[in-house]
């Protein structure tokens, strides 16, 4: 077994078990059930990606000798929009006009992942960092939407759901902010550590962003009353 396979197998097991635990622990009330479903399906998708990587599926050997796991980027391109959708829904108190913010956030998020992949596969050093910068710009766009208009709407609506949004947002942004730093320092970037260390770091970040965050986020919803989930009118000036 290759050294890089162990963290991938651990990632598969933890993600698979985490999916079950989050669903079992999550709120089953109709008003909050979709959040439980979001947060339980995310690690299940990640478990599928980790199993594929552990079995050697979707590995791309780059010119510099590094191994790129395409399944990892496929995982991120699917799971991060789900996490964003759940987060924004919480910020807007499940308001029916949520699509105003979800669509641009998801588009920017997917662009961030795709351009990150382009940076990883670029053989030209300048092109790599240009794509990395463009990916980072897309990430900043996501952050702007979450801290700007969505936060403004959440504060206008007020209540305990707003507090849940703020807490979940802080957790997720802190973890997500580590990813581009790790990428820049890792094998696809400056090469300060090898693929094995890279795999261990990413599995820890992924478990934190998907399993631990999912468990904590669903736990916060369980503390809310049904009245907290009521859809109060969203002021027109806030959308």
From TrEMBL:
<dbReference type="GO" id="GO:0007602">
    <property type="term" value="P:phototransduction"/>
</dbReference>
<dbReference type="GO" id="GO:0016020">
    <property type="term" value="C:membrane"/>
</dbReference>
<keyword id="KW-0681">Retinal protein</keyword>
<keyword id="KW-0472">Membrane</keyword>
<protein>
    <submittedName>
        <fullName>Bacteriorhodopsin</fullName>
    </submittedName>
</protein>
<dbReference type="InterPro" id="IPR001425">
    <property type="entry name" value="Arc/bac/fun_rhodopsins"/>
</dbReference>
<feature type="transmembrane region" description="Helical">
    <location>
        <begin position="128"/>
        <end position="147"/>
    </location>
</feature>
<keyword id="KW-0812">Transmembrane</keyword>
<dbReference type="GO" id="GO:0009881">
    <property type="term" value="F:photoreceptor activity"/>
</dbReference>
<feature type="transmembrane region" description="Helical">
    <location>
        <begin position="197"/>
        <end position="216"/>
    </location>
</feature>
<keyword id="KW-0675">Receptor</keyword>
<dbReference type="Pfam" id="PF01036">
    <property type="entry name" value="Bac_rhodopsin"/>
</dbReference>
<feature type="transmembrane region" description="Helical">
    <location>
        <begin position="101"/>
        <end position="122"/>
    </location>
</feature>
<dbReference type="InterPro" id="IPR018229">
    <property type="entry name" value="Rhodopsin_retinal_BS"/>
</dbReference>
<keyword id="KW-0600">Photoreceptor protein</keyword>
<comment type="similarity">
    <text>Belongs to the archaeal/bacterial/fungal opsin family.</text>
</comment>
<feature type="transmembrane region" description="Helical">
    <location>
        <begin position="70"/>
        <end position="89"/>
    </location>
</feature>
<keyword id="KW-0157">Chromophore</keyword>
<feature type="transmembrane region" description="Helical">
    <location>
        <begin position="6"/>
        <end position="26"/>
    </location>
</feature>
<feature type="transmembrane region" description="Helical">
    <location>
        <begin position="38"/>
        <end position="58"/>
    </location>
</feature>
<dbReference type="GO" id="GO:0005216">
    <property type="term" value="F:monoatomic ion channel activity"/>
</dbReference>
<feature type="transmembrane region" description="Helical">
    <location>
        <begin position="167"/>
        <end position="185"/>
    </location>
</feature>
<keyword id="KW-1133">Transmembrane helix</keyword>
<keyword id="KW-0716">Sensory transduction</keyword>
């Amino acid at each position: 077994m290759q050294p890089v396979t162990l963290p991938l197998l651990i990632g598969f097991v933890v993600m698979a078990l985490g999916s079950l635990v989050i669903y079992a622990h999550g709120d089953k009330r109709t008003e909050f059930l979709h959040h439980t479903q979001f947060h339980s399906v995310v690690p299940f998708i990640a478990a599928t990606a980790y199993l594929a990587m552990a079995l050697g599926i979707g590995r791309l050997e780059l010119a510099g000798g590094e191994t790129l796991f395409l399944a990892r980027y496929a995982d991120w391109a699917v799971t991060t929009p789900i996490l964003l959708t759940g987060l924004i829904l919480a910020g807007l108190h499940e308001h029916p006009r949520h699509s105003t913010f979800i669509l641009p956030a998801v588009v920017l998020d997917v662009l961030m992942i795709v351009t990150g992949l382009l940076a990883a596969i670029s053989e030209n050093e300048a092109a790599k960092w240009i794509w990395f910068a463009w990916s980072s710009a897309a990430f900043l766009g996501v952050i702007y939407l979450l801290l700007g208009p969505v936060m403004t709407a959440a504060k206008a609506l007020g209540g305990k759901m707003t507090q849940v949004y703020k807490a979940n947002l802080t957790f997720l942004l802190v973890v997500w902010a580590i990813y581009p730093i790790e990428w820049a320092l890792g094998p696809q970037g400056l090469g300060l550590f090898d693929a094995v260390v890279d795999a261990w770091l990413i599995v820890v970040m992924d478990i934190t962003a998907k399993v631990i965050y999912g468990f904590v986020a669903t736990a916060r919803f369980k503390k809310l009353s049904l009245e907290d989930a009521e859809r109060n009118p969203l002021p027109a000036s806030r959308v």
